[in-house]
Amino acid sequence: MALPIVHDPLYHAEIAADHRFPMGKFRRVAEVLIDDGLVTPDEFHVPGEAPADWLCLVHREDYVEQVLAADVPAAIAREIGLPMVEAVGRRAAAATAGTVLAGRLALAEGIACNTAGGSHHARAEQGAGFCVFNDVAVAIRVLQREGRIERAMVIDCDVHQGDGTASIFTGDPAVFTFSIHAEKNYPARKVPSDLDLPVEDDLGDRDYVALIRQHVRALVANHRPDIVFYNAGVDPHADDRLGRLALSDDGLTERDRYVIDAVRETGVPLAGVLGGGYDPDLERLARRHTILHRVAAEFV
Prior knowledge:
- The chain is an alpha/beta fold.
- The protein has one domain (5-299): Histone deacetylase domain (Arginase, Chain A, 3-Layer(aba) Sandwich), CATH 3.40.800.20.
- Helices cover 41% and strands 11% of the residues.
- α1 crosses α10, α5 crosses α6 (135-145) and α8 runs parallel beside α9 (249-264).
- The chain is globular, with a radius of gyration of 17 Å.
């Protein structure tokens, strides 16, 4: 069996080529996966766009309407940091549908990965930090509404704290949120997760992976989720322009392998999402993102 991989051409929206957000990575990730034989073009699971009623399970209705109508107030658009044109709104809806589909596939097959997702700064009332809709939160709420799951866990290894996800699930005992991130990085105001591991700058592979090993297996055993959503951001890498933790490709690989193994050995399904990555070298960045898919393929 091949790893179920979710991708939609809508993940790419045309924005200025010199924009700080590397939009081209989503298209290139899919191309690298095809070029390297992990998937054929017709094997991608294509999600389409999330309907408004899914998005409103998490986000305020007026905000959802603004995004889908390409009529986001300028102040909110500035916080998001993307041109909030129609294509960007459709991209966000498609990426969200992709994480929902990855969750469904994970429940059916044990493991699945999206080629986008991990927009963990988006909170109920609006987006922020290049995040329009919180795809993981929406996926959890959709799967709960469908009766497919009761309990979920979010393991967030993006270099930035998952403040939006933490905010959405604050006080919800059915969803456990875990974030390991650079303490001095964005966002300036953190929202407490169920467990946060803020770490110092320049933490290398050995110490970072040691922290993952210290916590993840016990968290899964204690919370007993029906599914884990894993944000495999590659921005902790030493070459990432928004990261601060000095990890290498090998360190990211070891991280992903340990997290996935710790979850799957318990029989809990895992849905992987891309998370952040901002290396200015698009080819290098896309290949780094596919570490998630390569490691996940070892567990099918």
